[in-house]
Amino acid sequence: MFFAILESFRSALAAIYANRLRSFLTTLGIIIGVASVIGVVSVTGGMSAFIGESFASLGANSLTIQSYTPFEDLMKGIRSRLTPADLELIEKRGEGIASITPVLEANRSSQLKYGPQTAYSLIMGTTYAYQDVSQSYTRFGRFLAQSDNLTRRRIAVIGEDVRENLNLPENPVNEYVELSGEWFKIVGLLEPMGDIMGQSRDNIVLVPYSTMVSILGNQAKTDIGIQLSLTPTANPELVISQLTTLLRNAHDLSSDEDDDFRVQTAEQLMEQFDQILGTLTMVIGGIVSISLLVGGIGIMNIMLVSVTERTREIGICKAIGAKSHHILMQFLIEALLLSLIGGLIGLITGYALGMLISNNIPDFPPASVPVWAAALALGFSGFVGVLFGILPAAKAANLDPIDALRFE
Amino acid sequence: MALIELRGVKKYYEMGSQVVKALDGINIAVEKNDYLAFIGSSGSGKSTMLNILGCLDKPTSGQYHLNDKNVEILDQNELSGIRNLEIGFIFQSFNLLPRANALNNVMQPLIYRNVGFKKRKEMAMEALSRVGLADRVDHLPNQLSGGQRQRVAIARALVTNPSILLADEPTGNLDSRTTIEIMQLFDELHQEGHTLIVVTHEDEIAQHCHRIVEMKDGKIFNDKKTEKYLFGEAL
Prior knowledge:
heterodimer, A: alpha+beta, six-stranded mixed beta barrel, B: alpha/beta, Rossmann fold, six-stranded mixed β-sheet, four-stranded antiparallel β-sheet, 10 strands, globular
């Protein structure tokens, strides 16, 4: 049996090679199907690998606490909040916290002016501790200091994009920009942080937290975010559960009420992105597998033609002693190889396609194909080959030798 | 016991409402190293005879002993095994695999015996040398002349060392000069101890044999020894 199988592979390859063009056209459905899957997966795979790196740079052991309002409550006009009192509570009672800072964001982009230039940017009120929590450092000048907060100084630390948009000099320290009708002195320029999910992290203006409170005035009850970093020895899960208990008590939540806030690690944020990407990949994969199905039917069709064409050969083989399983094996292996070769070509084409896409979109992460996707694509095309090869192969194996020999 | 023994073999085909009696009660014995020709006009049943003898087809009724085995009770796969072990086919239209070269064609039946490549090649080379084609082993069938193709087919039949060589109009597609060459090869194979059965409608071919069985309407009409048998090869 072993030599018969070996020989089947050889003769199948010979048959595929003898009909090169036809084999290629036959397997085109598989090629296109696999190439699309791999193209999509390589782009999203590159993206998720990139996201992983980006979040790692956020600081793996940092936590973010934000208020959370269920959609139902939002419709009723109820909004959950985190207040400065919560911050104080955590500062006093929280354990395992290295540094902690409030983050107060304007709820929309704000206009900045410098001479004739205007630009829009995200304004964040925070404290000196943000430097440690977010791992952001200044290129020129200094970061926010504690005294800035206490005295509500009108100063700002800006990101690289803001400097560019406003046409500020290379070193913008000591320049003044207008923000909400007030003049702010620039005291520092941040090191560029790069993009995350295509969104710049450099289009940012940091001002002292208390300054931000006074700018916003009493237009809304404040809802702050809290960012904190953990001490190296702290166990993130323990800290999270402790903070959750603290905040639940502070917010007077009874045991049957859900949390009105979210404590998230950078990892969790990353998982969320991964989940979205995963779902996207699955949906596209599902659509594309239909193309593999069509490709399989194409293979079956040509294999049936091939069996008819080679009826006489089958008769000869049977006359000189081939049993049904020999013939079955030969055609099954041919169908298998045909679709596997298609799968392989599709794999290479898809990867090339992914590279092409990611190289031509600026700032897009490089394509990468995970091993499981490559294995799955090849496995699935092999499966399609066997599945759709069975019918033609069985037809060949069951031919009557006399009729087959007489076939013209 | 004879190498081949047919007892009361009948083969009936149903053609619509009519029953065609292709073979109608055949009794014949063929001894080892016999050199036998089946002759008869078309429709006499000699092709059906060949199919039955070659285990390509099963009789409707009757018994067929081949080399002490009862073959009429076997199924298609078992018959394939018998064909591989006991029978070497030589066809009128050569029936070589078109995409395989001479060597691969001759090696083909050994694959079904699960012989390893090295041994297979050795045996095939030997068979090809026997028919005088040692220098044409890597030629494809369409690169060979008719006579050479038939030699490859004979080598393929010989390579399994079968009990009988079964030739169906072996020279039907060949010119007269090549016909003589092929028949000389047959004569030699007979002298080497092979059992040959030739189905033909040409009297000249039949005269090479030692025994001629004439068929008519599915029955054996005449069964006689030839002069060659009586007076030896000298004739």
